[in-house]
Amino acid sequence: MKTDTELRQDVMTGLQWDPDIKTPDIGVGVTDGVVTLIGYVDSDRQKWTAGRVASRIFGVKAVTEKIQVRYPDSVKRSDEDIAWSVSNALVWNASIPPDRVKVRVQDGVVTLSGEIGWEYQKFAAGEAVRYLRGVVLVVNNITIKPKVNSRW
To answer: How many whole angstroms separate alpha carbon 82 and alpha carbon 132?
Structure first.
């Protein structure tokens, strides 16, 4: 079993080796195997990657993220612009049935709702919009309502 100091060092090393992460802006704390990441990054991808890197370290029991995303001014987008991009991404994805997913955007937080028939479609909808520029968080409230075949 690794000590908290060893875990902290392993997480910091993992973060340093990942090219997507700017490590000077992320602090690492460990208490009883629970890693806390704190700091600032430039994108949601960096935040997600930092959490993924920390969770993959052997001996880490859990990860809490207190990382804030601070977008450069050139990346910030209006909610209307994000909503337009999200709508297009959903239309362009062949896995998602047309006109079944509703979109709401507030302060960069995208909320998906509606009813579809399959779990993979719900997953595809979330993944289609997760990494769009300006999206801070995706709340996937899509419900799955399978079609019942009465002929069987």
So the answer is: 8
Residues 85 and 62 in one domain: no
On the CB side of 82, CA atoms within 13 Å amount to: 25
Q: Which among 47, 69, 91 is the end of a domain?
A: 69
Q: If you search the block for the tokens 């997760």, which residue do you land on? A: 130
pTM of the model: 0.59
CA-wise closest residue to 128 among 79, 85, 66, 77: 85
114 within 8 A of 101, measured Cβ to Cβ: yes
152 within a domain of the structure (yes/no): no
Digit-coded pLDDT (tens) for 81-118? 999 999 999 999 999 998 999 999 998 899 999 999 99
Pairing of strands 109-116, 143-144: parallel
- Domain with 38 in it: 4-69
User: 53: which 2 tokens?
Assistant: 């890197």
Contact 101, 125 (CB under 8 A): yes
Q: How far is CA 147 from CA 99, 126, 141, 144, in A?
A: 17, 21, 19, 10
